[in-house]
Write a structure and sequence with these properties.
- The chain is of the alpha/beta class.
- It has six helices and eight strands.
- The chain has a single domain, classed as Zn peptidases (Aminopeptidase, 3-Layer(aba) Sandwich).
- The protein has a six-stranded mixed sheet with strand order 1-2-4-3-5-8, sandwiched between helices. The chain has a two-stranded parallel sheet with strand order 6-7.
- A hairpin with a 4-residue loop joins β1 and β2.
- α1 crosses α6 and α4 crosses α6.
- It is globular.
């Protein structure tokens, strides 16, 4: 496990925040690599809560944050047993959710930091998972991913079809700004797996009660299959 510590002066919190990206590498000697990422911070304020009195409370983030982390931890456990034919990096990004409409620079601090620190070793592609724990998961083609990394989108959704994972819907979805954007801006193919139809988003109601183990398992199965088969190397 590698850790990269950095800081961000948050005008919304009125203080400097200490942040940390965490990286687990499988087959670190391999030159051909892929990256799976998720953010592991949760929002410091529930600004979308239906009760105005609760909007200064922190968000637990069971789906918006913890769901992606849970899947990557399980992927790590499985890959440790199975091994991989290619280098795989699992990255937990910090500081994804520190922004506001007035201060959009607070968003995606960890992924931007990771891309800046990456150097010449660039992954073949990146898959970011975010808000993938809700019940009745519905993963559509995120528009930025589809526009700039259509081949990776097609590969991931085909893998889901091959596995019989029905949560992946082959239909266009909305454009979402998330941790994959930093990679797309660096001309690295990246896709965002996200179900933004989540009423509890940025509220105090984002708790384990609204999450589903089946949704986590579905996404994890697709990631493990991609990492262990590495069939994309023949494309």
């Amino acid at each position: 496990m590698q850790a990269d510590t950095f800081s961000y002066d948050s005008p919304d919190l009125g203080k400097q925040v200490r942040l940390m990206n965490l990286v687990a590498r499988f087959r670190p000697e391999a030159k051909e690599r892929i990256l799976f990422g998720a953010h592991w911070d949760s929002r410091p304020w529930a600004d979308k809560d239906p009760q105005a009195a609760l909007r200064t409370r922190a968000v637990l983030g069971a789906n918006d944050g913890a769901s992606g982390v849970a899947v990557l931890l399980e992927v790590a456990r499985v890959l440790q047993k199975t091994g991989t034919p290619i280098g795989v990096d699992l990255v937990l990004f910090d500081g994804e959710d520190l922004g506001t409409e007035q201060n959009p620079d607070g968003y995606f601090r960890g992924s931007m930091r990771y891309v800046q620190q990456m150097g010449y070793e660039r992954p073949l592609f990146v898959i970011v998972i975010d808000m993938i724990g809700k019940k009745n998961l519905n993963l559509t083609w995120e528009a930025n991913s589809r526009q700039q990394a259509s081949n990776v989108v097609e590969m991931v959704w085909q893998e889901a079809r091959d596995l019989g994972v029905t949560a992946f819907k082959s239909v266009p979805g909305p454009a979402i700004f998330d941790d994959h954007i930093a990679f797309l801006n660096a001309s690295i193919p990246a896709v965002d797996l996200i179900d933004f139809g989540f009423p509890e988003w940025h509220t105090t109601h984002d708790t384990p009660a609204v999450c589903s183990a089946e949704s986590l398992e579905a996404v994890g199965a697709v990631l493990v299959s991609l990492a262990t088969k590495a069939s994309f190397l023949s494309h």
